[in-house]
Design goal:
Elements lengths: L1 E9 L4 E9 L2 E3 L4 E5 L5 H13 L3 E4 L3 E5 L2 E6 L3 E4 L4 H8 L8 E2 L6 E6 L2 E6 L6 H10 L6 H11 L5 E6 L7 E5 L2 E9 H6 L12 E2 L5 E5 L4 E2 L12 E2 L3 E2 L1
Parallel strand pairs: 9-18
Antiparallel strand pairs: 1-2, 3-4, 4-8, 5-6, 6-7, 7-8, 10-11, 11-16, 12-14, 12-15, 13-14, 17-19
Helix pairs in contact: 1-2
């Protein structure tokens, strides 16, 4: 795992700060692709990244994502926080990625991490993780990997830390009334565990405990109504997210 270091003037805190962003590329052999989680990028940062890649001799096509060719391969980098390629991207992307640590935050009208809908006495929360959902979710479990990023862990903790509901999730250890789930050579279990247990054992990109819990493939959770508010400026998201979004009552 590589660590990029850069200085940024954090306007919300009114001071210069050193930010450290850990880079970890995941190679999913069965999928035939490399995945590199990125910070969630502002429009300015995306443009800065494109300009630096071009200055280093790569060909960049701009659209919803950056499509980059050169240095013996191609890759796609999305401002939502993920880069993918059939080849190793570290040499091509990392030198330019360090530039994003120098930027200010930007404001959004909506939450980039989840949407919620009230259903009876609880909320249905649809999360938008970079990797931990749908097809990539199965590939990660089959490879014994996890793509949940530090800012996504902060989001889950904020949503569930006061919840009294059991979390419908996947574990790598058996629990009461669990259902075995074999993915590749790895044994998992569909289970419902207390929120505190889910958060304690939650596996992420750079953390693994003796027992691990994972989001369900759908990335859909049930959360208590009235657990508090979420959103707005959050120093906990740090260099993984330069975006701010409106506070949301839950």
């Amino acid at each position: 795992m590589l660590t990029l270091v850069g200085e940024a003037y954090l306007r919300s805190r009114g001071r210069q700060a050193v930010l450290r962003y850990q880079v970890r590329q995941i190679h999913l052999v069965e999928a035939g692709r490399f995945f590199l989680p990125l910070p969630k990028l502002t429009v300015f940062q995306t443009s800065l990244l494109a300009e630096d890649l071009s200055a280093r001799g790569l060909t960049v096509s701009r659209g919803a994502s950056l499509k980059v060719r050169g240095h013996g391969g191609t890759f796609t980098a999305s401002p939502t926080g993920i880069a993918t390629s059939q080849e190793d991207m570290l040499d091509a992307l990392v030198p330019s990625l360090a530039k994003v640590l120098r930027s200010d935050t930007a404001f959004l009208d909506s939450n980039p991490y989840f949407i919620s809908k009230k259903k009876g006495d609880h909320l249905l929360v649809q999360l938008f993780p970079r990797m931990e959902s749908f097809r990539i979710w199965s590939e990660l479990r089959g490879a014994g990997e996890c793509g949940l990023t530090p800012d996504e862990v902060v989001i889950l903790t904020s949503l569930l830390m006061r919840s009294t509901r059991r979390v419908d999730c996947v574990t790598d250890y058996p629990t009461d009334d669990c259902i075995p789930l074999q993915i590749g050579r790895h044994q998992y279990f569909r289970a419902k565990v207390p929120a505190a247990e889910f958060l304690t054992n939650l596996r992420s990109l750079n953390h693994r405990s003796a027992k691990s819990t994972y989001l369900p493939r759908s990335s859909l959770l049930e959360v208590d109504v009235g657990v508090g508010s979420f959103g707005g400026p959050s120093t906990d998201l740090r260099e993984w997210c330069y975006l701010r979004f409106p506070a949301q009552e839950l």
